[in-house]
Amino acid sequence: MPTTQALSDFLKEQPQNKIGAVAAFIESHVRENWQEILVKENDRLLKAYAEAGDPAYGTYLNLLFLPVHRQLSEAGLRPEPRLPGNFDISREWGRNPDQSDQERWMWSTLHPIEGPPVGTIVTITYHDHTRFRIPRRPGIIALTETSQQDIVEALSRLSSDFKQALEFSVEYENYLRSLEQ
């Protein structure tokens, strides 16, 4: 499952655009491995979905990003939070009423051993709420923004759907309130 080129090589090729180089590396890894992991781990992922539902997508993303975390560490970079990002502040929306074509945007800011953050990696996960299914390859966006507010503003400019979606924690709180009524 190794990506053909090490992250350190990507960084050498693009020294002025470190976050762009990291995003290109991650995109290459995802392109090469997203379907292979679905096939190789199919039974495990289906079992996780049957037992816990949507957290199975987190299992999938952990498997997908494990080699990326190793490469980031070797390159002296630390994602905060761990890729793909913080579920509580992520945003999700769908393309159809049956929720079989959803997308969730999460992000992690990359920190070097010393110095300011180099940027933010946004992961877009396409998924299905009716069964375990990832209908298309996860997307990766590189941002130079590193503060929560600046990241949200940048993503809101990129996507009106993102702008209108609620953070998961807010959406879930609203859901719990609706049950009390």
- SS-derived structural category: alpha+beta
Count, helices: 7
Task: State the total count of DSSP E strands.
Answer: 5
Binned, the helix content reads 40-55%
- Tell me what portion of residues adopts beta-strand conformation: 15-25%
Low-confidence spans: none
Q: Using only CA atoms, what is the Rg?
A: 17 Å
| Head-to-tail CA distance between termini | 50 Å
Average of per-residue pLDDT values? 93
Tell me, briefly, the overall form: globular
The string of secondary-structure elements, in order, is HHHHEEEEEHHH
Let me know the largest β-sheet: 5 strands, antiparallel
Instruction: Please give the domain count.
Output: 1
Describe this structure in words.
By secondary structure, this protein is of the alpha+beta class. It has one domain (7-173). Helix content is 50%, strand content 18%. The chain is built from 7 helices and 5 strands. Strands 1, 2, 3, 4 and 5 form a 5-stranded antiparallel sheet that branches. A hairpin with a 6-residue loop joins strand 3 and strand 4 (119-127). The longest helix is centred in the first third of the chain and has 23 residues, at 18-40. The termini are far apart.
